[in-house]
Amino acid sequence: MATLGDIGVAATINILSAFAFLSAFAILRIQPINDRVYFPKWYLKGLRSSPLQTGTLVSKFVNLDFRSYLRFLSWMPAALQMPEPELIDHAGLDSAVYLRIYLIGLKIFIPIACLGFAVMVPVNWTNKTLEHSKLKYSNIDLLSISNVPLGSNRFWTHLVMAYVFTFWTCYVLKREYEIVAAMRLHFLASEHRRPDQFTVLVRNVPPDPDESVTQLVEHFFLVNHPDHYLTHQVVNNANKLSELVNKKKKMQNWLDFYQLKYSRNPARKPSTKTGFLGLWGKTVDAIDFYTSKIETLKKEISLEKDKVMSSGKSVIPAAFVSFKTRWGASVCAQTQQTRNPTLWLTDWAPEPRDVYWDNLAIPFVSLTIRRLIIFVAYFFLTFFFMIPIAIVQSLANIEGIEKALPFLRPIIEVKVIKSFIQGFLPGIALKIFLIFLPDILMLMSKFEGFISRSALERRSATRYYIFLFINVFLGSIITGTAFQQLDNFMHQSANDIPKTIGTSIPMKATFFITYIMVDGWAGVAGEILRLKPLIVYHLKNFFLVKTEKDREEAMDPGTVGFNTGEPQIQLYFLLGLVYAVVTPFLLPFIIVFFALAFVVYRHQVINVYNQEYESAAAFWPDVHGRIITALIVSQLLLMGLLSTKEAAQSTPLLITLPILTIWFHRFCKGRYEPAFVRYPLQEAMMKDTLERAREPNLNLKSFLQIAYIHPVFKEVEECESDPASEESDQEPVLIPTKRQSRMNTPLPSKHSGSMTSLG
Amino acid sequence: MATLGDIGVAATINILSAFAFLSAFAILRIQPINDRVYFPKWYLKGLRSSPLQTGTLVSKFVNLDFRSYLRFLSWMPAALQMPEPELIDHAGLDSAVYLRIYLIGLKIFIPIACLGFAVMVPVNWTNKTLEHSKLKYSNIDLLSISNVPLGSNRFWTHLVMAYVFTFWTCYVLKREYEIVAAMRLHFLASEHRRPDQFTVLVRNVPPDPDESVTQLVEHFFLVNHPDHYLTHQVVNNANKLSELVNKKKKMQNWLDFYQLKYSRNPARKPSTKTGFLGLWGKTVDAIDFYTSKIETLKKEISLEKDKVMSSGKSVIPAAFVSFKTRWGASVCAQTQQTRNPTLWLTDWAPEPRDVYWDNLAIPFVSLTIRRLIIFVAYFFLTFFFMIPIAIVQSLANIEGIEKALPFLRPIIEVKVIKSFIQGFLPGIALKIFLIFLPDILMLMSKFEGFISRSALERRSATRYYIFLFINVFLGSIITGTAFQQLDNFMHQSANDIPKTIGTSIPMKATFFITYIMVDGWAGVAGEILRLKPLIVYHLKNFFLVKTEKDREEAMDPGTVGFNTGEPQIQLYFLLGLVYAVVTPFLLPFIIVFFALAFVVYRHQVINVYNQEYESAAAFWPDVHGRIITALIVSQLLLMGLLSTKEAAQSTPLLITLPILTIWFHRFCKGRYEPAFVRYPLQEAMMKDTLERAREPNLNLKSFLQIAYIHPVFKEVEECESDPASEESDQEPVLIPTKRQSRMNTPLPSKHSGSMTSLG
């Protein structure tokens, strides 16, 4: 078991590495050449079109102003300066609310830590149980519940503290739910006119032998919503078309690459081979080859497009139906249309950018079957993922490699390399799996048939959290794979499960402290460095970029990444709540994580990430629910722990805690969740009335007519109108975005002033 | 363990007692004097106003037509004759669908029993495990799974049969859900104009210092549903008024009693005492005393009524809001009105008869707290109800009685009486508790705040089912109180629970066979005799009845009693499904129960029960869900049983069964449940259009104006207009009912012909 000294060493190492990351970031970000890597958000918003320094050629690439190196931590206060309303305006509500998760962490754990250190530490410390026992123990254990003797009356302190911590957490959660719900409603109410406010997505339009889908939809809504129906757009199956467009884009990239090569070295015309990846086949002139390929594809695309647009066959039984008023859309989205609840399914249309087009056509029965399949698949993934990895590990040993690839033997037999491979190889399969896990989960969600990208992310996040809970949290406490745990639990009584886990919890405190420092502190500091986008940007910049627009494409701002980020934050909530009563010594480490992460992610949200859609904080009920889950888990584990400490008289008081917590959750669900699911009629009516008064002659139909068109059509049209451009504009025209920064940089906004002083 | 012979004896006894009940019924029902006990439904429908025989004075009371005694089982085919659509017309959809539950029992278990006897019985019988073992066993056990040797390959038969039975049950359930959903929608669509089709119940109207509730409601709906709002009625708190009315009714009963007594014996004026129950106090003239009491109450009632009607203080923050169209009401009921989802709660208004008025004013926070309290109370009721009963039992022993009431000693010491008391006393506390249990559960549901009587019954039924499952089913299998079970389960592994129960299941087959015969066969036969209503009717008839109208009041038709009846049926489904694979010998007993109960209850529904409200089969999702639960329980127990039989290789196949069943349940829930919860807009629009075409000048407002008035006001008005009458008309005027059979008997309907031949 680690002593306080060990932890000190680990802390020093991690603080130093975090500090190294931060310093590297501070130096790299003020180099003009990296400007587009560390400030892409401003470029995308059109508020910046080139690094701010002007001067000699050298100073275009390297920052020579040495004063700026002295202010290398200046980004931190700057990141905190922008007030929240401006942040919402700048980066969207999703990002702003996402940052609030870190704030909640601080709000919950700072008072809990203070109380814990003031009350629990003295209570635990002033015992001599561990001293008198002959167990090996560390200084940290002296501060933990392990140091309290069996059957001691001091456990009442822990019980009271569990109540206090629960009430405090619930109080913070309730307040936060209230604030976020109000923020969401305010955001929806104060938004500009958006097509999704008037539009409902209708799925499972029943087939009709006499009428086409578009006629059917029109007739149905003219009959059943006569006063409100305005127009509709059918959805085309454009999967093949987007495939072709993607293919053409890839070809264009190669063409650019060779053209650039040629222009740099006009002496030698670049050539390529026609086979796979250009590795074999006939050698041809590369530029001619790709130019002709692109021409062929262009023709195919325009043919396919005509086919999709003209023939009714590619129309899928779904449509975006628009209404004259928000009231009408709100009514249609919340009601059932026909006797058969699996036909004419109506939902709020997601924002156009948020639609996941591939899933719009899945019928009801198929959906339920897909859900079953994914449930089973996920179960096996969570509990049995170690089996294929163990197989790969057993295959991928040194002898196996030497046998399969004998020519590598001389290299492998070098001692340093051998020991490196032996140490590294077994872990690599697991590491690769863990890296790809979020993508696997996302694929699962896609297969399950959600229709918006925000819903996909939310579902993936839930699954990822469960995976982390079982395989990281429980897996670290009761060492063993998830399947072994499952087997254990099946053979244990319901009473014994919290006991087993509860008793090993205090012993794992030092492990989790190290985990927090490595994953939390150093990980977050690494995030701000953006090593991968930095390298990719410079590679692209060198090989592909010809115009400013290409350079813009080469930027990869990324997004907050709800589906990977949030479950990891939740793990810290879980650790904090579980250890709050048991080993309060762990709390400061979590507080440092939350504080550092808050600053770092706030900086990233302001300067880097470009959220691809706006769900208006629709994920908050999930966040709330998972913190509640963590709270209940912590209560059950405390119950298990205390029951082994011969403090059984406290059990009834402990049982009421989870019951009260569940009740609190249900209360919050009833009180606040509807704000995230439904759209109140009063709000809709207010906005409608206001709009009618302000713009009595508004032509809503033309506004809505083309709002929901498959993005690939827009891309194709752009291609056709401007053959030199292969700009992929994922957003439809109507969403107010300034992504095309070709336009002149507008006047700096009030906050861009504060930002420019950073650069 | 009971042998086949024992079961034969038990069967004989129960068949004989059932037969005795049926014979008694056959004789009693054709006596004209009992006509109102056994055919109240016809009186209430106004299709019958006196027994059908006419003749001498004697034949008014006793049936002298000996031929009719020969046809004493003729009611059975008669009960089956009425076709279902006519039954719906006659007794309502609720009753007709309730009878389908018995039919489902037959549909599920007849094929299962045939297959079970054809396949399982030979497979089980042709083993010699029990013969070779030295265990005591009965003939029935030879037919059960106990007779198959450990690790035998024959268990594959049981496995395959479990699959076949599951698929068959699911098939029947799905078909039935489909049919019932269609029946419900057809019923709703083909109904006459009813106020609840246009009306929405709004609760939690927020308080406003400037406006009264009625103004607030009007303004809110005029703004937010401008095209559809028609009118509204506020709800008054009339609890005190109904108390007074009830008190007056009781006084009137006493007055009638004494007046009748006086008219029969004019020599002696009846007197009463003013104290409690007329037992002590000053002796006064009874008729004068009660007349003056009633006069005082009348004044109080009219005062209270004026107070309630005029002052705004008794208005509670809830209202029935009516719309111009069904479409408008449907929209309002399914949508959220304001930002705060706990204010302006809109739900479909229940039928006026179905409204539970006392609960309309409970605010949201109070509702969630009440739910928590009831959850805890119900938990303790289910698991700890034996504690107070055991205390009562320990107090109520012979010695205790002798000590408390020493003057009873000579009587108690008589041997016969002593042994009788000793045998009877311990059980009586439990018996009384079980008799009052449905009422206790109903009180709990009322406290929980449901707003319709049908919802109250549904919730009580769920609770009763869980109680029966834990205390009767599990309690009989692993003997011990529910609390001991809970304690056992807490200390057992999750794997072991199904094992413990599964292994004792085959041994309990004979017990459950006896249970089915006593509770099912004899119980159902006893139901048709209606002993309690028979006695009460004749008592009332003798002491209170003066006019025909009084006689009508003395009838107590009762209702189907969903909250007590359905959970008991569900117990048979559970037994049937659990034993289908284990001991198929039990199935014929269950089939006999379902067949007998179907005939008996069909007779009762046609001739006796008077359903007090119509929920249009809103209970079906509950029924379906409980049969699914029984199916899953049976699968888990089979899994436990087979795992002790060393047939572990079948476990993976068995685990998939409950997963598939749960998936099937979710599929059905998505596909059919909305028909029971929501009202599709297409249907509403169709009915609206039809109505507009047929009756363009309909004055809907006057139709809806008084539909939802607290029933006590109507009673009061009736009292005032007709002081001699205390007819309690629970139904508002607008519901088409012919309850006042004072009117001349109309022409017999087409089916009343077949019924009169029964009498």
From TrEMBL, chains A, B:
GO terms for molecular function: calcium-activated cation channel activity. The chain crosses the membrane at residues 6-28, 101-125, 155-173, 372-396, 416-443, 464-483, 571-602. Residues 719-730 have a biased composition (Acidic residues). Pfam families: PHM7_cyt, RSN1_7TM, RSN1_TM. Its main location: membrane. It is found in: Membrane. It is a multi-pass membrane protein. Residues 742-759 have a biased composition (Polar residues). Residues 7-176 form the CSC1/OSCA1-like N-terminal transmembrane domain. Residues 719-759 are annotated as: Disordered. One of its GO terms (cellular component) is plasma membrane. The keyword Transmembrane applies. Residues 197-359 form the CSC1/OSCA1-like cytosolic domain. Keywords: Calcium, Ion channel, Ion transport, Membrane, Transmembrane, Transmembrane helix, Transport. Residues 370-642 form the CSC1/OSCA1-like 7TM region domain. PANTHER family: PROBABLE MEMBRANE PROTEIN DUF221-RELATED, RE44586P. Belongs to the CSC1 (TC 1.A.17) family. This is CSC1-like protein At3g21620. The lineage of its organism: Eukaryota, Viridiplantae, Streptophyta, Embryophyta, Tracheophyta.
